[in-house]
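Is this the right way to post structure tokens for a design question? Let me know if I should format differently. Anyway, here goes:
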């Protein structure tokens, strides 16, 4: 897990902010001397070396000057470096929040002319909150967003409220993964800059599957065989352990459609939703839950029940992401990525990502882009990899095996490299987030086994994809 902020970090920051506030608030006047290093050391319970680091930062900002033999004197305001105040917003349960807080501290130390205020907003309603801010012209300078939030902005016609840039602006010979960039592109322009990403992967509990490396799940038949083998029942009925599990969320079930050549729309805008391939894909999912009974049934919506069962040693293998793997370290170590992308007609998985977006109306766009360059730079990207499981977007760092952390990373952490050619974005289904959400709601009857796949896809196609049935009939 990511290292938590320590008591020392709090004391160090309080010392710096206290002195800075006394100077800029004119409690201390130009020409006054600060308390001695020894006194400050006792006052804030820090070593003199740490106090000297604080004073060096203040000197770099032009707030104080060191007078040999006398101490540190407050300078006249004309010498103070003007600071840019950046507002950054992030959803509160982001797995990258702790490391972002640490990176902000490092960035501010090296860029004393910029101060970043981090605001946290609940993930529930985060997209709506940001959308309202963008419409009102009152958005934060910087926003941490996922590809899901980006699709919400696209549906709402708000992409022009995000500062555009070109891929070349962020390429310095050490590229950021184009697959991750594509998640946040509109035409030839980037509307947000990715800094982490993850394919949707299969994760195995090695405690329940000690010979995990011997099992292959390259296709649906092998996946079913694995699930059967590792589902344990008592008295022929009570399930004590499931072999496989996945939550019915809209970044899970679409990959089954992709793996079977199904989808929602093809490139010509024709509906694929009631195609035999889509029906078969949904049928396979339902068969795992209800016919074979090798996967927990009807786990609907944005829950994490399957993940909790996995960590409680009740499910042998689940569909997950590198993002969620950050949580495993607090529970157990016996897990690994299955280093394959399953498929039926073709191997396929979904790609998700996290990015930083700049408000197009921000008066501090230059400073905001400087922070993004720092977060996507080598140092910050290495920190992201060393202290978490989510994949850094800078290729050289992500694939650098010397940065592998056995205390955090699964044995097959780097399997994502071979998965990228088979990774798709939600946009490859031919729809936006709004339509995907509506489909998610209307699939409930099918997931609850109150409607057959054939009925569900035809009903939803008629309700949400008008005209598509007639197009297919003419063909």
């Amino acid at each position: 897990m990511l290292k938590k902020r320590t008591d020392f970090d709090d004391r160090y920051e309080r010392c710096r902010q206290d002195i800075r506030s006394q100077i800029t608030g004119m409690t201390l006047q130009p020409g006054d001397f600060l308390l001695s290093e020894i006194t400050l050391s006792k006052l804030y319970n820090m070593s003199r070396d740490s106090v000297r680091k604080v004073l060096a930062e203040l000197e770099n900002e032009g707030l104080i000057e060191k007078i040999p033999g006398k101490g540190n004197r407050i300078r006249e305001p004309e010498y103070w470096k003007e600071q840019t105040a950046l507002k950054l917003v992030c959803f509160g349960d982001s797995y990258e929040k702790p490391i972002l807080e640490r990176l902000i501290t490092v960035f501010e130390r090296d860029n004393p002319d910029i101060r970043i205020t981090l605001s946290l907003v609940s993930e529930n309603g985060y997209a709506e909150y940001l959308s309202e801010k963008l419409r009102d012209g009152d958005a934060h300078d910087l926003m941490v967003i996922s590809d899901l939030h980006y699709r919400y902005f696209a549906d709402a016609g708000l992409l022009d409220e995000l500062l555009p840039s070109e891929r070349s602006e962020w390429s310095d010979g050490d590229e950021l993964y184009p697959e991750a960039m594509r998640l946040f592109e509109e035409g030839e322009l980037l509307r947000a800059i990715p800094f982490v990403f993850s394919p949707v992967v299969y994760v195995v509990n090695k405690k329940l599957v000690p010979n995990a490396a011997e099992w292959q799940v390259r296709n649906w038949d092998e996946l079913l065989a694995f699930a059967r083998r590792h589902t344990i029942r008592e008295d022929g009925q009570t399930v004590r352990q499931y072999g496989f599990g996945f939550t019915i969320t809209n970044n899970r079930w679409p990959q089954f459609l992709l793996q079977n050549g199904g989808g929602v729309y093809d490139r010509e805008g024709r509906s694929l939703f009631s195609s035999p391939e889509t029906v078969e894909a949904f049928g396979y999912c339902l068969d795992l839950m209800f016919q074979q009974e090798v996967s927990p049934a009807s786990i609907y919506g944005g829950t994490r029940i399957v993940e909790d069962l996995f960590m409680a040693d009740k499910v042998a293998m689940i569909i997950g992401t590198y993002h969620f793997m950050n949580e495993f370290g607090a529970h157990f170590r016996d897990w690994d990525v299955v280093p394959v992308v399953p498929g039926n007609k073709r191997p396929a998985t979904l790609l998700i990502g996290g990015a930083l977006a700049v408000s197009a109306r921000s008066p501090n766009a230059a400073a905001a882009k400087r922070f993004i360059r720092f977060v996507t730079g080598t140092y910050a990207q290495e920190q992201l990899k060393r202290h978490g499981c989510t994949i850094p977007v800078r290729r050289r760092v992500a694939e650098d095996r010397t940065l592998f952390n056995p205390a955090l990373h699964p044995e097959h952490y780097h399997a994502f490299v071979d998965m990228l050619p088979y990774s798709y974005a939600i946009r490859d289904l031919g729809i936006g987030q709004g339509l995907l959400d509506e489909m998610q709601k209307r699939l409930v009857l099918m997931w609850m086994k109150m409607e057959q796949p054939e009925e569900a896809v035809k009903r939803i196609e008629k309700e949400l994809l008008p005209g598509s049935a007639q197009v297919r009939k003419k063909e």
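Format looks fine. Someone answered above. Worth noting: Residues 7-24 form the longest helix (18 residues). DSSP finds 20 helices and 15 strands in the chain.
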